[in-house]
Every structure is written in structure tokens, then in C-alpha cells.
Amino acid sequence: MADQSIPLALTNLFAGGKLLGSTQADTSKPRTPVPRYRHAAPSAPWPWMDFDVDKSAVEPGGLVFPSDHWSNYPQNLFGNWTRDQVLRSKMLTSCSSSQSCLIYKMEVRDDGHFDKIAGEKTTTVTADKDSSQAFWKELQQPRPEGIRIRAFFVDNLSLDVLKMLGTSFNVEPFFFTSSMNWIPSRYQEDAKAGVGDHITVTLPFICAMRKSGTGPESISSVGAVDPLQKVTPEAPEINTQTSLELTHEILLQDLLAIHMVRRKDSSTIISYHPISQFQKTSAKRLQSLVQRTGDSVYWSKLFSSSKDPTFVFLAILWYALYAWDEAFEVLYQHIKKLESRLLHYQQLLQDFYKSVDFVKKTPNPAMHDDEGKDNSAALLEREADNLLSEISRLEGQRVMQSGRLQNVMNLAFATVNIEDSRAMKRVSYLTMVFLPASLMASIFGMNVKEINSGAYETLGHYAEATITLTVLTTWLVVAMQTESSFWPKGSPWWHRLAWPIFFAATRIKEWYSRHRRPSKTHKRRGTGFM
Q: Percentage helix, strand, coil, to 5, in the chain?
């Protein structure tokens, strides 16, 4: 809650005359689709079916396996995916049609070392049929021995490349649909002991993008954006799927979409990168960073000591952690800057107010003998009051913004307190369950004549001791208080120890004065009539 509420609340803070994170409709900001979680994994029995659609349009009527040619994917391997479902999932329509598909490769040898020569190879697949067929033949070639992992980092995924990768490696269509629709998903399928499995992770995350001209990029920044490329806001709205614009950075959603075919002899990784007008994590960037993992002493030891290809998969996930960490650093710096600046602005506004008030209360000596000095002084006071009124309005805006920031902080703490309260509530429920049993155990364990015939004590003695101890405890608790309604403020310690006496005396005096006053009045009235 807290990692999703603070950025949302920050979007409502004003800075520099515009909304932070701008809650205005801005077509220049990247928007990611709202996730449809029911279509995230193969466990969903009705992939991309909407129940309000005509049944005849969505029921496949049995599994039909068309030709094995890759151009018929996904129906050539997954016959339950009808054309209507494929169309609704946007799996094929979201592919790039105008740009060439770039495929960056990476290979890890059996000894755990990364093949730098293979890491420099890039395959370009155009819309030309010959280019597609050449890539298909490359995929069908037997993999040389000694390769533990071969990875494909794909930019501008084209329709043909999607179908060829899906057919070659028997990729469940849910990988492509969850990736293109930005649906968080994690699943394993086709697991066979001693053979391998398929695992998919589609992970949206937040990354920081520097505005152009604001400084050098960090290693985990994904790019830069021109802050002048803006569109006039149209209608106010709150959309958490848009980017959050800060002073020097923009926080936006990025995506890690990884499918891994784990096999005993050689494994395969497919990394999908969404098509965007903004420079998000490109396939080339991620491939170069993962390739650089092989130079790490720590990770190279892991790759050498274990043949499990999942370590490379795990290393890729570290990229999302780096991006999240940088995003939180940017948010923290922005919040800290807001807090300090709001306090500083308060002092500046106070100085502004005092300066105008000083001018208002400091008459001009040169106007002392002027005939219109009174009229001039009245006009000066009026205009100074107008300016002071506007300064008070500015202070009101500052207080409002400070309150909004405080609300964000309170929301974070309230979220934690709610979780703590839920935990304590569970403990209270357990206490309530065992309370009757504890009460009955205490009663039946009493050593009194009414319960135990051989005992010497009685219930009366028990009541006397209980009441005495309760009164003594109440007396000590009240006496130990620094402030109480039982004694005047600032009373000495001996007065607090004797609080029952003084309290009773005060109440008796009040009662006596209330009942004595009417009798005196009645007596005076009676005397008057006589």
C-alpha cells in the first residue's frame, strides 16, 4: 500500500504552478494499460474470454491443431486459442510493423563464462520474407555443444519473430499477452523431472528517467526525455498508470518480461521489450548489463560453481531492483526538498509580510506639511492592506501544500499502524476466546468454603481483600499522576497523597452550598411577606 500510495499522493502536490506528477491529461506522458490479472497465467481456464460476448464467438468447439508452420502460431501449438481470443489479447496486433526487429544475443558457456563474441552479434529481421526465413533457419540449427544458456533480447518485436520464437521454443501465448498488456505474472508450466520446464516472469517496475539537460545519466537510468515536449492539459484526472514528473527526473513504469526454457543440456531466455516512444529499458541496454554480470567476481563464481541456468534469470531481475532503488532515492530527495523548502518559504513569506507592514506603518516625512497627506496616508494604508491580504492568501496556499505533504506522510504511518492494529486485533480475539476459561479456572481454584469444604476462608473474606486491594491500587494510581481533576494544578505531593480527603471535602462543600442557597432565599422571601 505504502509503495503505491505515496507516489499517488505526491501527484496532487503543487510545485512551480503545475501539478507534480501531473494529474492532468497529457498525451506526451507514457501510459501503461490497466492490468487484467485474470489473463496473467495459463491456469486461467478461459484465456482472454469476456463473458458478455456471444458464446458462439468464443467457444473453440474442441481442440483443433492446424498446420505446424510457424506462421499459424499460436493455433499450431495451442488449439484452444481461437482467432477471436488472439485478437482480443492484442498479442499479434501490438507487434511492430514498421520498424525492423533487433535481436541481441548472449551466450553462457558450460564453464560459467560469458561468450563476448556472441554478445556482440545482433540479428536484424525485417518485413522481408527472406529475412524472416533466414532467422527461422537460424533457430532450427542445432545448438553447438558447450553452451549452457542462449538469450535473445528482442527490441521492436515483429509479428514474424513472435511466431517463430513461440513455435521454436513452444512458448505459452500467455507470455506474450501478459507482456504486451503489462500484466504482472509468474508461472511455471510443462515441468518434467529430469528434463526441464518453462518459467515466465512479467514484472512491471518503476524506473527514473532524467530530463534532458539536467545532468549525466546514472547506470540504472533508462534514458532522457525533453521537458519541452508537452501538450496543454485538457481535463483533470488521476491516473496511476502515467508517469510522475519531478523536478529533474520522471518516474515511469517499465517492464521486465522474461521467458526461460530450462533444459538439462542447454537453456534459452527470451526477453521482450515493449515498444515505446520513450527510451525505456532497451534490449541492447539490458543485454549489455547482463553481459557485464559475467565480469563480476561474485557472480562469475556462482556461474562456475553451479550449472543451474536460473542464476542468469535471477541476475536479470536485479535490474528491476536497481531501478526501484533509484526511484525511491529520487522520491526521497524530492520529499526532503519539499519539506525544507516549505519551511524556508514560510520564513520568506513572513519577511514579506513584515516588510509590507513596515512600509504601511512608516510615514513619509516629506509629506508632513502637504495638504493631501491624510488622503495619501489613507490610500497607502488601503493599498498596503490589499497587498497584505494577497500575502495572507499565499500563506494559505503554503499551509495547504504543507498539509498535503503531511497527509502523505501520515498516510504512510497510518498504513503501518493499520497493519499493527490488525495484528493486535487477532491477539485480542485469542484473548477473548480463552478469557472465559481463565475466569472459570480462577473461580474453581479458589480455596473458600463455598467451593472447597476443607478450606477456612469464605467468599466474604475474598470480597473484602479484593475491594481493599482495588481501592488501594486506585488511590496510588491517581496519586502518582502529575495532573488530574482530583486536585488543583500545581498541588504538592502531600496534597496528592491525600487526594481522597480533599476530593471528598470539595464535593461536600459544593453540595452544601447548592442546598443551602435556596433555603436562604426562601427565608428572605418569607421575611418580606411578614
A: 50, 15, 35
